[in-house]
Design goal:
- This protein is α+β, with helices and mostly antiparallel strands and 742 residues long.
- The protein has 6 domains: 59 residues, Alpha-Beta Plaits (2-Layer Sandwich); 136 residues, no CATH class; 89 residues, Distorted Sandwich (Calcium-transporting ATPase, cytoplasmic transduction domain A); 139 residues, no CATH class; 131 residues, Rossmann fold (3-Layer(aba) Sandwich), CATH 3.40.50.1000; 119 residues, Calcium-transporting ATPase, cytoplasmic domain N, CATH 3.40.1110.10.
- The protein is 51% helix and 18% strand.
- It contains 28 helices and 26 strands.
- It has a 7-stranded mixed beta sheet with strand order 14-26-25-24-15-22-23, with helices on both faces. A 6-stranded antiparallel beta sheet has the order 6-5-7-13-8-11, with no helix packed on it.
- The chain is elongated.
- The two termini are 63 Å apart.
- About 1% of the residues have low confidence.
Length: 742
């Protein structure tokens, strides 16, 4: 019997408002018959599903997800557009609700703080609070109801409970003042508390949605690397522009200078240099001749060539990178935030205590037992308001993110900031991360018995006529040194795999590697040869400038190590973190860089897939891995890493995929980011302690535990003050982060 066919698909999900929504959706889909695996990515609002089509179909999955209050988009043709429309619609709704709540909350707070004694103050506050609680904050009770139906609670539950109780209690005080007055209770209202809680949490949701809307831009940029149309060369030699989707294996395609290569293939005619940094990460363009492989998304430079399509559609290297980024992002289980976990226990416990205290008071036999019973329930629920609990994490995160920005560390989400302090392995890309990221001339040594100024002018003129990628750094170096290029050169000829030759002043000159010198029987002096061999041992790229008889100079080009790299790696070692380097460059260069910087281990000549595999290998060993890179070729590894960090001068795609960005591209910021994470997590724990200590002390007091001993009952107004004090202590503690030294 043949094995059952399994299908792996990614579908956009709509309607999720928090990490627990994502966890709930994932758990529910996993429980459906015919589902082999499911992983919800809350940041990307998508679900990666592996299912048996014989047992369950996409419409059935969609219907099941709709039954728990969410939805998935299964129309593949325009799913991305539909998803973006849904996200924009939700963002617009949040923005309107936030603005509406803020507009009404501001005068409400002013009345509550300054004009509470004016006539009808309570009715004015009730009129301002009612639209905020009932309309602008309606998503919170809706979310709480979804959780309640499945026997759980989250921040929506806490927000709904606290705002509803404070609003209903305040409404009762406003509409039935005599009831409270006759019981000897000061009729204080909490309308401003209910409205302000909703406003601040809506603002947080708005900022969260704004950040999330950018998470898919990396995949859009990757997809944008592939041109939409290509030039097909037909058998009779005619050329025809066709959509890239129509290309089939075996087609002959034309690539002009500056064009992106549309699919993977093999060159059949012509030659050029191709920028393959999106695959290898290396800044130098690669020379391509007949039978050379070319890859989709890489950029042709100055030459034109024909190539035969070998891999098209989803089989290209670029398509595999896109697929791996999607899967790496989607494979991470959504994090159930600490506060949501606590809320799941906290909410039912508080409700139980409130109801229990109410029952005890009701059967206690004291005067006005019913009033005391209701008062105890309300006071317990008010003092247990989750303001401090809700502020504990976001205030610390906000201050931490601000502190990071002040130090040139842009942090995209709370998850990476919370997790970074646990990192025990850092993986560094070489080019653009440890090194500057572009080839520069480090040295030019001239033969002692020549006229240097004249010969450097000739070298500049020849290099200005060269298409080789290393010609640019030489031109820049010579121009910065004061050389001029008024010399006319002619008969410029590129020699494949060797260099270039040209005539200047009726004399023949060569610029190229040692093979070019040997093939033309050009003499190399001992001093020049000594320089060349020393620089080659240091993994620099070395080539020569010669006339038809003698080598006139030797030039060393390399991608220099950044000044801060050695110190940054030293600091990481002092923190007990192992440091690895991955590079597409050759082993000799990689070994030299690793030796000079003190890196623990390295791998050379690695492709994007190998970088991704290495991250997974470390994770399987139990490591918490931070990946630092700057290129498109790093995007898969960045997406897979526990903490992903991009260099600010790198590619947009790497920056989009990564959760942190080092603006200055200075590696010293990496240990600083880890220290910032340690301080932030410590602050979060302190905040949660202060938030709970008020509840631990306040809830029993609010329930009336001191009444039998001291005859003391906590007034709801004092409960509200205690609640506010807990929030103030949390915010103040968070602000201490600003003064930490990284």
């Amino acid at each position: 019997m043949p094995p059952a066919i399994q299908i792996l698909k990614t579908y956009p999900v709509t309607g999720m408002s928090c990490a627990s929504c994502a966890a709930r959706t994932e758990a529910f889909v996993k429980s459906l018959p015919g589902i082999k695996s499911a992983s919800v990515n809350f940041a990307d609002t998508s679900i990666l599903v592996e299912f048996l089509p014989e047992e369950i179909s996409p419409p059935e999955i969609k219907k099941a997800v709709q039954s728990i209050g969410y939805d998935i988009i299964i129309e593949e043709e325009n799913s991305q557009e539909l998803k973006e429309e849904a996200q924009q619609s939700y963002f617009k709704k949040i923005r309107i609700n936030t603005i509406g709540a803020a507009v009404l909350s501001l005068p409400l707070v002013i009345v509550a703080m300054v004009f509470m004694d004016i006539p009808y103050a309570n009715y004015i506050m009730m009129a301002l609070a009612t639209p905020v609680v009932i309309w602008f904050g309606r998503q919170f009770p809706a979310g709480a109801w979804k959780q309640l139906k499945h026997g759980s609670a989250n921040m929506d539950s806490l927000v709904t409970l606290s705002t509803a109780i404070s609003y209903l209690y305040s409404s009762a005080v406003t509409l039935f003042p005599d009831l409270f007055h006759n019981a000897g209770i000061h009729s204080h209202v909490y309308f401003e508390a209910s409205a302000v809680i909703i406003t601040f949490i809506l603002l947080g949701k708005l900022l969260e949605e704004k950040a999330k809307s950018n998470t898919s831009s990396s995949l859009k940029n990757l997809i944008g690397l592939q041109p939409k149309t290509v030039i097909l060369v037909m058998k009779n030699g005619d050329q025809k522009e066709i959509p890239v989707s129509n290309v089939i294996t075996g087609d002959i395609l034309l690539v002009k200078p500056g064009n992106k290569i549309p699919v993977d293939g093999i060159i059949t005619a012509g030659s050029s240099f191709v920028d393959e940094s999106m695959i290898s990460g290396e800044p130098m363009a690669v020379e391509k001749t007949i039978q050379s492989n070319v890859f989709a998304g890489t950029i042709n430079q100055k030459g034109s060539f024909h190539f035969q399509a070998d891999k098209v559609g989803g089989d290209t290297v670029l398509a595999q990178i896109i697929k791996m980024v999607k899967e790496a992002q989607g494979s991470k289980a959504p994090i159930q935030h600490l506060v949501d976990k606590i809320a799941g226990i906290f909410v039912p416990v508080v409700i139980s205590i409130a109801l229990l205290s109410g029952v005890i008071w009701f059967i206690s036999g004291v005067d006005n037992a019913l009033t005391h019973s209701l008062l105890a329930i309300v006071t317990v629920l008010i003092i247990a308001c989750p303001c401090a609990l809700g502020l504990a994490t976001p205030t610390a995160i906000m201050v931490g993110i601000g502190k990071g920005a002040d130090n040139g560390i842009l942090i995209k989400d709370a998850e990476s900031l919370e997790l970074a302090h646990r990192v025990n392995a850092v993986v560094l890309d070489k080019t653009g991360t440890i090194t500057v990221g572009k080839p520069t001339v480090e040295y030019i040594e001239w033969k002692t018995d020549i006229e240097v100024v004249k010969q450097s002018n000739i070298l500049l003129a020849i290099q200005k006529n060269s298409e080789h990628p290393l010609a640019g750094p030489v031109v820049q170096f010579l121009e910065n040194s004061g050389s001029g290029s008024d010399i006319v050169v002619s008969n410029v000829e590129s020699i494949t795999g060797r260099g270039i030759k040209a005539i200047a002043g009726q004399e023949l000159y060569f610029v190229g590697n040692r093979k070019l010198m040997e093939e033309n029987k050009i003499s190399i002096s001992r001093e020049i040869l000594a320089f060349a061999e020393r620089w080659q041992n240091e993994a620099k790229t070395v080539f020569f400038f010669a006339n038809s008889h003698n080598v006139l100079s030797v030039i060393a080009v390399s991608d220099r190590i950044k000044e801060s790299s050695v110190e940054a790696i030293k600091q990481l070692h002092l923190m007990g973190i192992e440091v690895h380097m991955l590079t597409g460059d050759n082993e000799q260069t990689a070994r030299a860089i690793a030796s000079e910087t003190g890196i623990d281990s390295f791998r050379s000549e690695v492709l994007p897939q190998a970088k991704y595999d290495f991250i997974r290998e470390l994770q399987k060993q139990g490591k918490i891995v931070a990946m630092v890179g700057d290129g498109i070729n790093d995007s898969q590894a960045l997406a897979q890493a526990d903490v992903s960090i991009a260099m600010g001068k790198g590619s947009d795609i790497a920056i989009d995929v990564a959760k942190m960005t080092i603006i200055s591209s200075d590696l010293i910021r990496i240990p600083q980011a880890i220290k910032l994470s340690k301080y932030t997590v410590a602050t979060i724990k302190q905040n949660l302690f202060w938030a709970f200590i008020y509840n631990v002390i306040g809830i029993p007091v609010a329930a009336g535990i001191l009444y039998p001993i001291f005859g003391f009952l906590l007034n709801p107004m004092i409960a509200g003050a205690a609640m506010a004090l807990s929030s103030v202590s949390v915010v103040t503690n968070s602000l201490r982060l600003k003064f930490k030294i990284l």
